[in-house]
Amino acid sequence: MKPVRMLLPLILLLPLVWVAGCLPDPLAVTGLPALKPQIVVSSQIIPDQSLVILLTKTFGALDASEDSDPEALLEQIAVSDATVTVTGPDGTYTLRSVGLGLYGGIVIPFEEGKSYELHVTSEALGEVSAVTTVKRKVRFESISANLYFNGFDDTLAQVTYSLRDSAERNWYMLNTQPIRLGEWQDNLLNPRSFTRLLDDTTFNGTVFTETFRGFRDDYRTGDTLAVSLANISEDYYNFIKLRLDNRYSFTEFLSEPVNYPSNVQGGKGFFNLYVPDVRFFILQ
């Protein structure tokens, strides 16, 4: 098994998959007056320091079902009329709309440990804002991935990796995602991703190594697997931990319960600034 170093189309796709984790919840409407939709924020830095922001809106439970068309639903909930800025120590940057609620297209010189403010203004939905700090990037010390047959007619992807933990408290998120070009809407809205959360309580300041498997997919020889590692905030760790049980079907993947934590003032979701270490493998 060998990492694939130059897969530009996949690198461009991955931010869509990562930011999709904060798509909004079908809000219950039975017996209640219609609620005004709120903006839901998701964000991801990619390795060249471009920032991708996904803006969607909350929607009613009757507006989507298991049979909903993914692309049509995204078009329905995408916020496309917004002005989006990010302000940091070096000034204010205006992001460009690239369609389907995605904003980006510019390089921002993010500095580790510095704070940045996101501001969104939508004529239809109003204003939201959020402040976050750029997290220290953590890299894999070593990593490999291969196919694993579990004896029950399932072929899984198995990942073995190590990371070097620093002395302060840290929270980590690992993601695996099979990538299939030509199926970007399915990758975005109904992903076959697997997320693993770690805190360093039991390995603080040491090199941590483990092997894990169990991704919900039937892999084949030649499939491409993306594996990412990120150093995240404790608040975002808790946010994702609450979400993990709600990502097994299409409508559940679109969930954003109203009682989930958020750092977005006036809206929902999470504004994050962490740079993942991403590795690609062709499974053998």
TrEMBL record:
PROSITE patterns: PROKAR_LIPOPROTEIN. It comes from the Bacteria. InterPro entries: DUF4249. Pfam families: DUF4249 (PF14054). This is DUF4249 domain-containing protein. It comes from Chryseolinea soli.
